[in-house]
Design goal:
Elements: H1 4-12, H2 18-21, H3 25-34, H4 40-52, E1 56-61, H5 69-86, E2 95-99, H6 112-129, E3 134-136, H7 144-157, E4 162-166, H8 172-179, E5 185-189, H9 204-220, E6 224-228, H10 232-244, E7 253-257, H11 262-270, E8 275-281, H12 286-295, H13 297-308
Parallel strand pairs: 1-2, 1-8, 2-3, 3-4, 4-5, 5-6, 6-7, 7-8
Helix pairs in contact: 1-12, 3-13, 5-6, 6-7, 8-9, 9-10, 12-13
The protein binds dihydroflavine-adenine dinucleotide.
EC number: 1.5.5.2
GO molecular function, one term: proline dehydrogenase activity
Binding site for substrate: 100, 291-292
């Protein structure tokens, strides 16, 4: 039988189910917890607030799995508008952007990787022009080689382009070693997708142990590790390791999702850590929202209770 997590992750890939959860006040309340708003102005208001509190941001214009070139071009244009909106704030690297290549046409047949590279390149150029960077989010495991190909091409002109590695995958320790080179920005996460046992660890403890191993490689290496987790034990491991190898706060950072463990985000920033919140915005929140429900049974219970009381 499929687990609740697998069911929710399966539903996250079926946009036609979106109408089942859309449009109720309960949905709006719960979505608002994880998403900064639907418009660029909503996102910029959150950027001003968080950076004012000493928390850096990486902005995600929501969207994924586009099915034609026109949609992919619209994703590029949304990011160019976002970078235009960030320019006058003059935040430099304190406000960067995260992109999902599946929103840039990566999955389109016959040259999706080339199309994604063609469309993401101007975004990397616009980011460099205002002194900031792009990080390529990582999606399902079958997209990793394509994403790493785009990463390598972008890094030739924009060496600050960031990558994401998912500790749950068997291949990740090798990928971490390959990416642990000077200047390399790598966000390590546990992994948000439903992956089979042939490619991924299935148990929570196995994933946590794999995360700690990859963390060791990245923090001891010469790159710039971005520790993407809310897990207090792994955050403590990262802090201990960073101290052990003599990393200064400007040589690594902690990243958490907007709306999750916000008090901890402020506490870490006040304690002198570099903290960055991942801030999603836009109308296409369905896939992102369903993954957040899948991560934590309490979120689903809260959501269902809200629906019942609407
Ligand atoms: P874990 O799931 O064990 O949670 C630890 C604790 O954090 C929980 O006990 C709870 O307190 C809190 N928590 C975690 N998730 C929560 C939620 N949804 N709601 C409320 N509380 C929650 N994945 C991916 O595959 N590709 C990517 O590109 C990214 N990018 C990314 C960026 C950043 C900045 C973060 C923090 C995460 C991602 N992820 C991701 C998601 C990641 O893979 C993972 O699914 C989530 O971070 C949840 O795992 P944790 O490491 O937080 O641990």
């Amino acid at each position: 039988m499929l687990s609740q997590k697998a069911l929710l992750l399966g539903a996250s890939r079926r946009p036609e189910l979106r109408r089942l959860v859309t449009g109720t006040p309960a949905t709006c309340r719960v979505v608002d917890r994880f998403v900064a708003g639907e418009t660029l102005d909503d996102a910029l208001a959150v950027v001003r607030r968080l950076t004012g509190e000493g928390i850096a941001v990486t902005l995600d214009h929501l969207g994924e799995g586009v099915t034609d070139r026109a949609e992919a071009v619209r994703s590029r244009d949304a990011y160019l508008a976002l970078l235009d909106g960030l320019a006058p704030l003059d935040l430099g690297p304190a406000a960067e952007v995260s992109v999902k290549l599946s929103a840039f046409g990566q999955a389109l047949p016959g040259g999706g990787t080339d199309l994604a590279l063609e469309l993401v390149r101007p975004v990397a150029e616009a980011a460099s022009a205002i002194g900031t960077t792009v990080t390529l989010d990582m999606e399902e495991s079958h997209t990793i080689d394509s994403t790493l190909t785009v990463l390598a091409a972008l890094r030739r002109d924009h060496p600050g382009t960031g990558a994401v590695l998912q500790a749950a995958l068997h291949r990740t320790l090798d990928d971490a070693a390959a990416l642990a080179v000077p200047g390399s920005r790598v966000r390590l996460v546990k992994g948000a997708y439903d992956e089979p046992p042939s490619v991924a660890y299935q148990g929570r403890h196995e994933v946590d142990a794999a995360y700690a191993r990859c963390l060791g490689v990245l923090v001891r290496g010469p790159g710039y590790p971005m520790v993407g987790t809310h897990d207090p034990r792994l955050l403590a491991v990262a802090q201990r390791l960073a101290t052990l190898v003599g990393r200064t706060p400007d040589s690594w950072e902690v990243q958490l999702l907007y709306g999750i463990r916000t008090a901890e985000q402020r506490r870490l920033a006040a304690a002198g850590c570099t903290v960055r919140a991942y801030v999603p915005y836009g109308v296409d929140w369905y896939g992102y929202f369903m993954r957040r429900l899948a991560e934590r049974p309490a979120n689903l219970r809260f959501f269902l209770r809200s629906l019942a009381t609407t």
